[in-house]
Amino acid sequence: MLHDPAILPELDVRALDGWTLHEFAEVTSTNSLAAHLPPWSAVSAGMQTAGRGRAGRRWVSDEGGIWLSVVVPTPGDPARWALLPLAAGWAVRTVAHALGIAAARLRWPNDLLVGHQKLAGVLVDRFCTDAAVVGVGLNVTNHPEAGDPALAGQVARLADLLPAVPARPALLVRLLAALTCEHHRVETGDVAGLCRDLNGAWRRRHVQVTLAGGRGAIDGRIEGIDSYGSLLLSSAAGDVRVLPPHRVELLREIF
Ligand code: BTN
User: Fold this and answer.
1) 142 ligand 1 Cβ < 6 A
2) pLDDT band at residue 1 using 50, 70 and 90 as cut-offs
3) Are 128 and 38 in contact, with CB atoms under 8 Å apart?
4) Fewest CB within 10 A of the end CB: N or C in the chain?
5) Which amino acid residue places its CA nearest to atom 15 of ligand 1?
6) What mean pLDDT comes out for the span 21-28?
7) Can you say whether residue 146 is alpha, beta or left, with left for phi > 0 and alpha for psi between -120 and 50 degrees?
């Protein structure tokens, strides 16, 4: 079906709540595969051999996690879709909360953390103007630190947070439903509602931001986001900088 040197045969393809879900045992990256598919397609894999994270980072994707990418339509003015990556993060947070993980929180723009440990990440790729690929990585029973010892103590897994881990199909159904819902919110222009939800959920933490392109680092306090999902960061002097996600390589919470 798709051009991927590391692809193992497709396990299943089925219709699910308006999505066509393609399931594989192993791929390079579900986002890369999804790039070849039409809107409302979804790709999930048991493992990724070249999982990609934000800012060009590697994403460890061992057996037991959820590695899912969906293709959503993004018609019209691209600026209208600026909030999609944050909305996708909100979708994953919604699923975590519905599972009973009340402590799950977002770190701008869309990392899902429990405490300071990362439970899930979101990568949005725009391979063309009228569709986006939204990739979600969720640690479930996998052991990312086995693939990268530097992750020891940095990652959270559903298996450590819930008395019983929901079956994989149930998790996929929940994620697909939440992503559909948040895509609809952005499509219908409910920017105010989304910003209200996100800004209500973020604490005014002090952070250090490493700017992309080797432009150094700045400290500041999170004041919220604007209607494009840019971070509003106030300095000790009181001025506020507006930082779109592509200008930020890394955000570290200080306290
Ligand atoms: C991040 O936090 O840096 C984003 C991680 C996104 C990982 C997911 S797993 C499914 C999809 N395929 C990829 O190669 N990346 C995303």
Assistant:
1) no
2) low
3) no
4) C
5) 52
6) 96
7) alpha
Question: Quick check: CB of 67 below 6 Å from ligand 1?
Answer: yes
- Residue 80: count of CB within 10 angstroms of its CB: 15
Helices 84-98 and 191-201, packing angle to 10 deg: 60
Tell which one of 36, 49, 52 to mutate to probe ligand 1, the residue whose CB is within 8 A of the most ligand atoms. 52
Q: What is the 3-state secondary structure (H, E, C) of 197-240?
A: HHHHHCCCCEEEEEEHHHCCEEEEEEEEECCCCCEEEECCCCCE
> Within the chain, where are the H helices?
30-34, 84-98, 144-147, 158-161, 168-187, 191-201
Whether 44 is in the pocket of ligand 1, judged by its Cβ within 6 Å, is: no
Give the model confidence (pLDDT) of 162-190 as tens digits. Answer: 999 999 999 999 999 999 999 999 999 99
- The average pLDDT across 122-132 equals 95
- Atom in ligand 1 nearest the alpha carbon of residue 29: 14
